[in-house]
């Protein structure tokens, strides 16, 4: 595995692809990889893009890639698609996305399934971000599907959050008002050549200024684009750079990343503890027996959890 890591760090795309597959499919081996490359991370600007399906996110990503490559940036793209609750596969993962961009050696595009995680962000997404970062990507773009009150998880893994809508979005602004308005650093009104884009810009600006309880040291910016024609993309890249410079100059970048590491540490701790406990109890079928007791009302759910905690306490020396 160390040879695979070395080749990926030296720019071998096939090795990087294999490492991404590893962290997605094998958490235990994947953690070893991340432990190896973690000291090399922390240099990339991580940007999230979320919004309603059909808003034009993929078209915008294509335009951003073109403009950022013109600015000599190396780019990693993670396109997160919804996952089927039955097969576990990505609904859109089998399509060819951003095909022309993927031929550029300075660009690496990876489509991933959300694996049912809230907000469309899978467990492996953070690990793939680290892989891109360690392998020298200057910009990492994370595209997620969906927008709404619960779809704010993207803010926990990126430096800059972009929220996309359209002039004809209808009720999605009211939905966004409940949650996603609080996380956006840049709001994009795409397909600005249709409908009343200026009214949508005005609505978003009014919502931004009416927010209470949000730190507005950076006032979220609203920009119009026509992604399919590359209109407004250059200005958007300028705005992205402006936000990144602001984060660095005000030390908010450090604070955001500190909060991100705190959240990631807690999430990973819970994940590893659960995996360890269940794996141990599955050896002799005790977990299934515990489920049966709860199912037959011989044990309440909280008492069952206490038994799991007891197993963890007895086996903590194995960590």
Keywords:
13% strand, Rossmann fold, alpha/beta, seven-stranded parallel β-sheet, 319 residues, 12 helices
How would you briefly describe this protein structure?
With about 325 residues, the protein is α/β, with parallel strands linked by helices. The chain has twelve helices and seven strands.
Task: Write up this protein.
- This protein is of the alpha/beta class and 319 residues long.
- The protein folds into three domains: 1-40; 42-250, Rossmann fold (3-Layer(aba) Sandwich), CATH 3.40.50.300; 262-318, no CATH class.
- The protein is 48% helix and 13% strand.
- It contains twelve helices and seven strands.
- The protein has helices at residues 2-9, 13-25, 27-37, 57-70, 99-102, 123-134, 172-177, 197-210, 233-249, 252-282, 286-295, 301-314, and strands at residues 45-51, 75-81, 107-113, 139-143, 160-165, 186-189, 221-224.
- A seven-stranded parallel sheet has the order 3-2-4-1-5-6-7, with helices on both faces.
- The radius of gyration is 21 Å and the shape is globular.
